[in-house]
Amino acid sequence: MIRVLVVDDQAMVREGFSALLAAQEDIEVVGTAENGEQAVRLVAERLPDVVLMDVRMPVLDGLRAAERILLAHGCQAKVLMLTTFDLDDYVYEALRVGASGFLLKHAPASELVTAVRVVAEGEALLAPSVTRRLIHDFVRAQPTGRALRARPDSLSALTARETEVLVLVAQGLSNAEIATELVLAEQTVKSHVSRVLTKLALRDRAQAVIVAYESGLVAPTR
């Protein structure tokens, strides 16, 4: 069973998402919270696998709550942020602190359920075309005076093929799409992605995207 904590300051949203997820045979809603402070406490108490977290909330917003949850010693929870198009800076920062992905709040119910399952399996929700657009917007939206960090030495540990795979991951392609692009078996691509994460000491594809952009390996689309 996938244990989920639903966090949103709107009661109707919390109840709707909880009912939808609880109706799935492989998902158990272990609690709900109306602000980030409650979420941090409940994560420690209920030990969810996935935290479905709204970005804007009172008391403690979703970004700060995600940061505290993901930095907690021994925390195994994955954070899936809920957002809208006008929150680019918030979502970009959420990915920087370790969130495993994000979903538009008005996405179809089937996408929400799929997103929870994908994140629970350790993958990042970065494949949909809407996500590619947002990733590009996040990087472009960063202050012009903020220079990209120099390419980290760890990137030199990647093989040419692994670097190629990392570039495609950063462009928002799924394993299946990368396999088609490089004419490889999907399992082979999955192995390459796993080695990239291991060599760069990253927890998932979301962090790989941030490293690829901020190191200058991939440039945002203008």
UniProtKB/TrEMBL annotation:
One of its GO terms (molecular function) is DNA binding. Residues 151-216 form the HTH luxR-type domain. Keywords: DNA-binding, Phosphoprotein, Transcription, Transcription regulation. One of its GO terms (biological process) is regulation of DNA-templated transcription. SMART domains: HTH_LUXR (SM00421), REC (SM00448). The modification 4-aspartylphosphate is found at D54. It comes from the Bacteria. Pfam families: GerE (PF00196), Response_reg (PF00072). Residues 3-120 form the Response regulatory domain. This is Uncharacterized protein. It comes from Kutzneria albida DSM 43870.
